[in-house]
Design goal:
mainly alpha
């Protein structure tokens, strides 16, 4: 019973992280800052990874590896965004690391969906089948294009506005 409740909480946090991450992603594509959404995205995605470590596992699993990678990537994104204020190369570092963190969350959503949703499991029972691979390629492509370093940069806040918001 407790594990079911914990799983629901973990899934809700994960979905909130993905949804807020998509808002941040669309802001990046539009060249608009989304400061509040960014904070929420980073915090909820960290919470997703951390809560994932408390499920009962036996040995080192792929989900533990993804969680560790996600936390490292989120640390880089947070450092670039908040400690370095997106200055210089840290702007692109933030974009790439934030998108990678979001992608990892969506990757896990796809894996879990193909494991738990009967219709998807039937399409790709081994997760080595064409529907699963195609889905992963489409999603990866959707994240690579906005993360292209040749895209316009995230606008900086003016000094006056920065002072008011922080």
């Amino acid at each position: 019973m407790i594990l079911k409740i914990y799983t629901v909480i973990h899934v809700v946090i994960s979905l909130l992280g993905i949804l807020s991450g998509l808002v941040v992603l669309f802001g990046l594509i539009a060249g608009k800052r989304a400061d509040g959404w960014t904070k929420f995205f980073l915090a909820s995605t960290v919470a997703t990874s951390v809560t994932g470590f408390f499920f009962p596992f036996h040995g080192f699993t792929p989900s533990i590896a993804v969680g560790i990678i996600s936390l490292i990537v989120l640390a880089v994104a947070s450092y670039a965004r908040y400690a370095r204020n997106l200055a210089g190369a840290w702007r692109k570092t933030y974009v790439v690391s934030a998108l990678l963190a979001l992608y990892l969350n969506v990757f896990v959503l796809i894996v879990q969906s193909f494991q738990k949703i009967p219709a998807l499991k039937e399409l790709a029972p081994t997760q080595n089948d064409p529907p699963f691979k195609f889905t992963q390629i489409v999603v990866l492509t959707a994240f690579v294009v906005p993360g292209d370093p040749r895209r316009p940069e995230i606008p900086q806040r003016s000094a006056r506005r920065r002072h008011r918001l922080d």
